Amino acid sequence: MKFVSALNLGLVFALTAVQGIADTSILFIGNSFTYGWGSSTRYYRADSVTDLNHEGIGGVPALFKSFSDQAGLDYDIYLQTRGGAGLDFHLAEKLGVMGRRPWDQVVMHGYSTLDANNPGDPAVLINTVAELSEFFHNLNSAVEIYLTATWSRADMVYLDDRPWTGTPIHQMALDVRAGYDKAAVAPAVKSVNAVGEAWNRAMENGIADPNPYDGIDLDKIDLWSYDHYHASNYGYYLEALVIFGNVTGLDPRSLGENECSGYELGMSRLQVKALQQAAYEQLASEGRVEAAPLELPRPVAPQRCN
Question: pLDDT for 291-303, tens place per residue?
Answer without folding.
Answer: 987 654 554 444 4
